[in-house]
What we know:
By secondary structure, this protein is mainly α. The chain has helices at about 5-25, 30-50, 60-80, 85-105.
Amino acid sequence: MVSTEEILDLLSTLILDLGSIREQTQDKIDRAAINNQIMALTSLWRKIDDARAGEGNDELTEAKTTLEGITQELKQEKNNLQNVAKVIYRAAQAIAVAEKVVKLVG
């Protein structure tokens, strides 16, 4: 079973990768959008951390799988930043998954 620790680890990785991508981004609007997503993910990370559930479930497994996919895509994009819109879109998906996890563990 997936634990909230695994979800928190993935969210931490996403936050760090987004920070790295933000530093590579030249456009101020794109940087601001990425920064807003970092703040949203950080806030959700804290909520999940505060509400930690002891046991995993199938919905947490699905969330983990989705976050792992997003993490892999952002790592590839970080190494060869070509599409900031894709980064922003995938970060928004990560926020939606994190919000779902907050509801599950809350």
